[in-house]
Design goal:
Blueprint lengths: L1 H40 L11 E4 L5 E5 L3 E2 L9 H11 L11 H14 L9 H9 L7 H17 L2 H11 L6 E2 L1 H9 L8 H8 L14 H17 L5 H9 L14 H18 L2 H6 L4 H20 L2 E5 L3 H14 L6 E8 L4 E6 L11 H4 L9 H12 L7 E3 L20 E3 H6 L3 H11 L1 H8 L27 H8 L6 E2 L5 E5 L5 E3 L6 E2 L3 H17 L12 E7 L5 E8 L2 E8 L14 H9 L2
Parallel strand pairs: 1-5, 3-4
Antiparallel strand pairs: 1-2, 5-11, 6-7, 6-16, 8-9, 10-13, 11-12, 14-15, 15-16
Helix pairs in contact: 1-5, 2-8, 2-9, 4-5, 4-6, 7-8, 8-9, 9-10, 14-22, 16-18, 16-19, 16-21
Keywords: Carboxypeptidase, Cell membrane, Cell shape, Cell wall biogenesis/degradation, Glycosyltransferase, Hydrolase, Membrane, Multifunctional enzyme, Peptidoglycan synthesis, Protease, Transferase
Family: In the C-terminal section; belongs to the transpeptidase family. In the N-terminal section; belongs to the glycosyltransferase 51 family.
Main location: membrane
Length: 616
């Protein structure tokens, strides 16, 4: 009976074994691919100090000095022994014995994670931490963890333990854009590492474990508490005595932060992001990444781009921008004053019509450096503000229709998509102008359907809508129904085509020079005709009529012309105004970071007040 049972088990196991075997072969092939790509990307970095990225306004005056990273690399023998011990004993006691990863630590982590049903513990060695800092994201997935082990093993084969430890100590993040223990010493105490006391070395050594939680500028007490725990580690390993530990813990810590020019953080944050876009564009990486469907290859191209960008910026560059400091200051003050003292947020982008440059940008209420920048990082549903781009301008471009052509405003469905009009008000035959200025959804959908999704997106895709994806090619897009939405930067960019029918992607950067003054990067100034003269004239007239007698009543300008379109999304979660005057093109969004209804403040028209303030 036992023998028969054994045969049954074996027979039942054959399909499972075949399945496992097939998966194993696939994983082996994938592993070989990983190994080749990893070997391609692993190299010993050139260790250099960094120079600042200096930002200049439209008047060529410095308004910000930025460090993509503040770094002052040190050789391992220049780093005090006590600093090395602090990291070895707190992070990876078996560093000099393992092969890049600690099998027993991983086993413990797997057991803990299984009980938690998520990845909480990583069992990470110093080598693995170096891998994450240099090559991978910190996402807690098993796929990323596997990649981390591949990298750690390859690094251990390529470099000595001392080389790995030196790289680790020079590349750790110490918060506030500071990288490496040498830079941390000069940034936080304005003295070289060799001149710090043991208490001060332990203090900065506390930061990398959690740079946000232990940022001494913001959470000094948290950093001090961890410093004391690190000093206890030295006592446990008999590096210092208990009496010495108490002395070091009680020694006052006085920060002496390195000062640098830091004005207009909302604008400078955007410039730094645009600088990365510019480098990606002009080094050819943007095209390579866009044209690669293989996820693994895309990841490595992004890694190469990151390393290329860091190498360029580390040398120091001068970035000349279109910032108009007075306007930026006035716009920020006006918007912050208009917004109520609640968690209501806003973003705004202001373009100079003559130059097509971003001269002012608002990333959020009381914006601070490295906050979420809502003007370019937070796409939201645009609602009817999208209709000029998605429906009406393409419709006039593709047909012989005029603003006085007739369209029905009654109930209308395309498949299962049956939008309502605002207030569930239905119309009979109306002019296209009436449909536009009163934002009649069913009329807009009829016009969109008449030209077709493909034709509409042929125009939409000519603009820089980064968050619009393939699955957005639906009829809902006619009314601004998108998967992720758009940003105020993208809306202002697209609306700038209504200045004269031509499109030049808007930018804040005029040129980038090296430290000798030679121009190394600048955007192309080639303009493309998007709308014919007839379509442009019609759209400007419709936008103007919307302000005069439609949903834009309450907007105004002393420039001689104003045209705009409003947008309100489902359940009043987003309010938009996008439009232009003779001088400026602008887009304004207001809403909550965690979307919720704003119906209670609809009549206040806060977004109108903001638009009026920034376009004057």
């Amino acid at each position: 009976m036992k023998q028969l049972f054994g045969y049954i088990v074996i027979l039942c196991s054959i399909p499972i074994l075949l399945l496992i075997g097939n998966a194993a072969w696939k994983e082996m092939a994938k592993a070989e691919q990983y190994e080749q790509l990893i070997k391609r990307s692993i190299e010993l970095p050139e260790v250099t100090s960094t120079s600042p990225i200096t930002l200049y306004d439209a008047n060529s005056k410095i308004f910000s000095e930025e460090y993509t990273e503040w770094s002052q690399p040190l050789a391992l023998d220049e780093i005090p022994e006590i600093a090395k011990q602090l990291f070895i004993y707190s992070e990876d006691e078996s560093f000099y014995q393992h092969i890049g990863f600690d099998v027993s630590a991983i086993a413990r982590a797997l057991i803990a994670n299984k009980s938690e049903q998520s990845i909480q513990q990583g069992g990470s060695t110093i080598t693995q931490q170096l891998v994450r800092m240099r090559y991978l994201t910190t996402d807690k997935t098993y796929e990323r963890k596997l990649m981390e082990l591949f990298y750690a093993y390859e690094i251990e084969k390529s470099f000595s333990k001392d080389e790995i430890f030196e790289m680790y100590l020079n590349e750790m993040y110490f918060s506030n854009q500071v990288y490496g223990i040498g830079a941390a010493a000069t940034f936080y105490f304005n003295r070289p590492l060799s001149k710090l006391s043991i208490a001060e070395i332990a203090f900065i050594s506390a930061i990398p474990n959690n740079p946000s939680l232990y940022d001494p500028v913001v959470h000094f007490e948290n950093t001090k508490s961890r410093q004391e725990r690190l000093i206890d580690k030295l006592t446990e390993h008999r590096v210092i005595t208990a009496d010495e530990a108490n002395t070091f813990k009680n020694k006052p810590i006085q920060l002496n932060i390195k000062q640098k020019a830091q004005q207009y953080p909302s604008y400078s944050t955007f410039v730094l992001q645009e600088l990365k876009w510019l480098i990606a564009e002009q080094t050819g990486y943007r095209e390579k990444i866009d044209n690669t469907s293989d996820k693994l290859e895309k990841e490595f191209l992004q890694l190469e781009l990151q390393k290329k960008t860091e190498a360029i910026l580390r040398q120091g560059v001068h970035v000349y921008t279109a910032l108009q400091p007075d306007k930026q200051r006035q716009d920020e003050a006006a918007i912050n004053q208009i917004l109520p003292k609640t968690d209501l947020q806003a973003s705004a982008t202001i373009i100079d019509n003559e130059t097509r440059e971003v001269i002012s940008i608002f990333g959020g209420k009381n914006y601070r450096k490295h906050d979420l920048h809502r003007a370019f990082q937070s796409p939201r549903q645009p609602g009817s503000a999208f209709k000029p781009i998605s429906v009406f301008a393409p419709y006039f471009e593709e047909t012989s229709a005029t603003p006085y052509s007739i369209v029905n405003g009654g109930p209308y469905c395309v498949g299962n998509f049956c939008p309502d009009n605002y207030g569930r008000i239905w119309y009979n035959n109306i002019t296209v102008e009436t449909a536009f200025k009163n934002s009649i959804n069913t009329s807009a959908l009829r016009l969109f359907n008449s030209i077709g999704v493909d034709t509409a997106f042929r125009y939409i895709n000519r603009f820089n809508f980064e968050s619009i994806i393939e699955k957005d090619r639906t009829f809902a897009a006619a009314l601004g129904g998108l998967t992720y939405g758009v940003t105020s930067l993208e809306m202002a960019d697209a609306y700038s085509s209504f200045i004269d029918g031509y499109y030049l992607p808007v930018h804040s950067i005029r040129k980038v020079t090296d430290l000798t003054g030679e121009t190394i990067f600048s955007w192309s100034h080639k303009r493309e005709e998007i709308w014919s003269a007839s379509t442009t004239k019609t759209m400007r007239s419709l936008l103007n009529e919307t302000v005069a007698t439609g949903t834009g009543r309450g907007l105004y300008s002393s420039s001689g012309y104003i045209g705009a379109k409003t947008g309100t999304t489902n359940e009043f979660k987003d309010y938009w105004v996008a439009g232009l005057t003779n001088d400026y093109t602008a887009a304004v969004w207001i809403g909550y970071d965690q979307p919720r209804s704003m119906e209670a403040i609809e009549r206040a028209k806060i977004h109108f007040s903001i638009f009026n303030a920034i376009t004057e």
